Amino acid sequence: MAVIDLANPTRFLALVNRLLPWLLAATVVTFAFGFARVLGAPDDYQQGATVKIMFLHVPAAWLGMFGWGIMSVAALGTLVWRHPLADVAAKAAAPIGAAFTFICLITGSLWGRPMWGTYWVWDARLTSVLVLFLLYLGVLALYWTAEDPGRGARAAAVLTLVGAVNIPIIKFSVDWWNTLHQPASVFRMSGSAIDQSILVPLLVMAGAFTLLFVTLHLAAMRNEILRRRVRSMQMMQAQSA
To answer: What is the rounded CA–CA span in Å between residue 109 and residue 101?
Structure first.
């Protein structure tokens, strides 16, 4: 099957129906392996057991930005290329990305309390992630409240592309400004600053959560396509009546 064939919703649904069981199985196996590695990971010499919040916080932060990246590409597909599945992909990714961003904020606050002595500071990294969450809510509001779905989709696409400016700010805020949040420690030019006993479980959990994201996203796209088909049939029936 050529990539261009996936522009056809029917062919896309057939592919998703074949992929989802395998993705679900891979997600469960990766999570099981990741949890085993997390349980065996040592406590940090400074942070103690609270360092294990990292295994949820870091993947959630990555997937919050990853979700907005998917939506940005889909927004271009909606506004520029008029791809029939672009808006479906963006609408399906928005609530999932918002959920992971919310998890990132909550786990970051729980981690910050013992480390910084407070649940929240107006740090550049924390503030920019909060802005990302508010942008997600804005996109969801446009999808849910627009009387014309097409107009709501275009407005959401515009907001998504404007909000994409925030992604590099989140990524490089700790380098551009003096912040409480620690700088990049996993992927660095000089190599990871994290010991292998913690780095390996972290990467496995990041892979597991990424598989979960992809699985949920494809399932949500499938549901959205079916929902739109049902709505179209209802409208056709109403017009014929």
So the answer is: 12
